[in-house]
Amino acid sequence: MIASNKKLLSAHQLYFLTVQSVSSVMIFAIPYLVNEHSKHNAWISAIITLIFFQLIGWVIFSLHKRLPDKNLFQMTEILTSKWIGKIMNWLYIIYFIGLATYTALYFTYLSKEWTLPVTPLFVVYLIFILMGLYIAKGTITTLARFSGITFLALTGFLLFSISFAIPKMHLLFLLPVGDVPVTKILNGSYHMGIGYAGLSSLLVLLPLLHDKLKTKKRVITFSILTISLIYLVLLVICLAHFGTYSLGLVPIPVLYLLKILTILSIFERMDLIIMCAWIAPMLVSYVLYIFIAGIGISENTRFKNKKIIVLVITLIISLLCALFPEAQDNMIRLNNYLLPFTYVFMIGFPILLLAIAMIRNINQSHQNQAGD
Question: Is position 363 within any domain?
């Protein structure tokens, strides 16, 4: 996978890779996480989050526009200094390894809760990690194509299936508007940020898209818009179906709703079909994070053996997974631990780098790419 970092992605491939890798992990739990803070006005939190992350998309694009041929790990050293840049790079490497570990942990949690309750924990970990190791031997282009298939087939099927809950929605559960304090609505938006944790991967992937800046801007905009709308639709359907009190009792509301739905008066238990196949989208996220961490390691050390780098990262993830039990309470705590770091690496550092680029008036876009 890492060895192919010079291969180019098409705009469609980058779009699908971004949407699938970012949304696949928390897609089943977002309604619960936001409702926990914003209650029946959780949908307002989702709209605020949509607008906020479009602004973050602008930050990502503006930073990439100034150094269009450089990825995140190269930008840091150019904009700061060699040593400060390397420190930031290693922090990002640790962050992406952490995201990959979290993805493996969360998949195991979902599997144990929903489809494999009596399967030994290490077996579930082993299945997921070994499949990820196998996929990581491919190229980023292959992963992008795979993400397109999984998005159209599985995410599309998920949205189609859950749409059958719309006739049973009670829109009064979304009212009254503005009844929840603004601080709680904003707190709901803040906690929804965990669903965008992998967005900073765009700063590594954008240089692989050899296209006009306008095209790249559209990819960023529509990727974030698609992710946000998926979350908003699922949140509204779950909230209007369960109500805020019942939703607070169901940590994985999307799967639970699919469990009680009957489609076309024939098909039932769509939750099992979707959950059994959902290993594919989560592997997209997992492998992408390994890919990005591997790029960082290869660019910040003299060690260039790509296969060994992937293997070492996988061993680190396996060790970290072994240190964490998969109990539900621990996963919720892990969310809370990860969330502040997500905002630092996804928002704080990019804004800092963009500010430095603007102050130092660094702009290489006119030398490398046409079109704005």
Answer: no
